[in-house]
Write a structure and sequence with these properties.
three-stranded antiparallel β-sheet, 19% helix, Mannose-Binding Protein A, Chain A, 2 helices, alpha+beta, C-type lectin domain-containing protein, C-type_lectin-like/link_sf, globular, secreted
Length: 132
Amino acid sequence: VFVLTCLASTSGEPIIIGLKNGTYFYVTTVPTPFDLTEANEKCKERGGYLWEVDDDEELRYVSRRLNIVFYQDRFYIGANDVENEGTFVYFNSGKPILPNRWAANNPSNSGDNEDCVEIITDPPSFNDVPCH
């Protein structure tokens, strides 16, 4: 089971993990394998979208909340480099991920198939991973 961060509820029973600057952060678990494009569409149907990190403060806040609520340290977010290898952008806005958010030695594209992005909660950073 993977946990997707979404800025609105998705199918299943979403859990509110926090409220910051007027935005509710919801999380829902999905069975594997799953499709991030489909997950993003589910979020859109509910008036939201897969999480796009706006700033470092938000990254730290949501990372802390995810770790407290789920006792896990890795979660998918709404970004990939499927269209242009090595250029990671968010599903919803198309904005690029800022390079200072990556964990050391990332993105690495290990195995030549790491096209999606997960958040590592401690310390808050990004890692490229396969899209399952």
